[in-house]
Amino acid sequence: MYKLNKDVVRRLSDNAAIPNADGNADWVIYQEWKGAGNTSEPEFTEAQIADNAQQKVNQENQKYLDKTDKFFTRFSETGKAMPEGMAEARAEARLLITHI
């Protein structure tokens, strides 16, 4: 069995990286295997794609929360209002963060 990666094919039995090179014996074996109707696994599964997307959402929302913490702290310490809509935006950002 094989798995497609960005620049190489990965042989799953020993995790060997097989470059696309005509003179490479492993590449020839892979091409024969593929020519016999076999299909390589994709680089990422649907679950991995979803996890990667959620991690990106988590990072973006955490970055926003970190950037706006000073307004929340100022509000907590002095009662000075946060900019309009920030409390709601922070609440939404917290809701979108999922722990994987």
Descriptive keywords:
100 residues; 3 strands; mainly alpha; single chain; 2 domains
Descriptive report:
A three-stranded antiparallel β-sheet has the order 1-2-3, covered by helices on one side. It is 55% helix and 11% strand. It has two domains: 2-35, no CATH class; 46-96. It is built from three helices and three strands, in the order E-E-E-H-H-H. The longest helix is centred in the middle third of the chain and has 33 residues, at 46-78. Strand 2 (8-11) and strand 3 (16-19) form a beta hairpin. It is rod-shaped, with a radius of gyration of 24 Å.
Largest sheet: 3 strands, antiparallel
Q: What is the overall shape? A: rod-shaped
Number of strands: 3
Rg from Cα: 24 Å
* Class per helix and strand makeup: mainly alpha
Give average pLDDT, whole number. Answer: 90
Order of strands, widest sheet: 1-2-3
Please estimate the helix content: 55-70%
Low-confidence stretches: none
Distance between the termini: 28 Å
Please trace the helix and strand order, writing H or E for each element: EEEHHH
Classify the beta-strand content into a percent band: 5-15%
SS summary, helix count: 3
Total domain count: 2
